[in-house]
Design goal:
The chain is of the alpha+beta class. The protein has 3 helices and 8 strands; from the N terminus they run E-H-E-E-E-H-E-H-E-E-E. It has helices spanning about 25-40, 100-110, 125-130; strands spanning about 15, 60-65, 70-75, 85-90, 115-120, 135, 140, 145-150.
């Protein structure tokens, strides 16, 4: 993928599926993006990026793609009757600031019934607030990065 996303490019296609229904090449690109963002950019090396939660039958992966490139991704961890958790939100550098992650988060929220919780990186607190999330407790360190608990009812 190039370092610059053309401003006149077609909007990305938003997709969702459980892990076992994602084509291997697409899954590779999703996991590579998460690895690029969390391991290489943010230097999160004390926790496993692949934590087995993607394998849960109630987990759905969401991604935005254009021309085979994955521009953003997130995962929804759901169990019947429980609070839904959204996490592993990652956006490729070239797609940042272009509304791709917001469109993906909106799509995920439209699919969810009931409350949603996130462990938000603190610098994104206001961004998540635009989607109806509110801070529910004090900040804390997770993987060496400031986070805040947030919830959307």
């Amino acid at each position: 993928m190039s370092d610059v996303l053309p401003p006149d490019a077609d909007p990305p296609v938003l997709r969702r599926a459980p892990l076992d229904r994602i084509a291997p090449a697409t899954l590779y690109r999703i996991l590579a993006l998460r690895n690029d963002v969390f391991v290489h950019e943010q230097r999160i090396v004390d926790e496993r990026e692949l934590d087995d939660l993607d394998l849960e039958p109630t987990t759905t992966l969401y991604w935005a793609e254009r021309d085979g490139a994955v521009l953003a991704t997130l995962r929804v961890l759901a169990s019947p009757g429980d609070v839904v958790h959204i996490g592993r939100v990652a956006t490729a550098r070239a797609a940042r600031g272009r509304g791709v992650a917001g469109a993906l988060l909106t799509a995920a929220l439209e699919d969810v019934d009931g409350p949603v919780e996130i462990s938000a990186q603190a610098y994104l607190e206001r961004w998540y607030g635009r989607f109806g999330f509110r801070t529910t407790g004090p900040g804390y360190l997770e993987a060496g990065i400031d986070h805040v608990p947030m919830r959307r009812d």
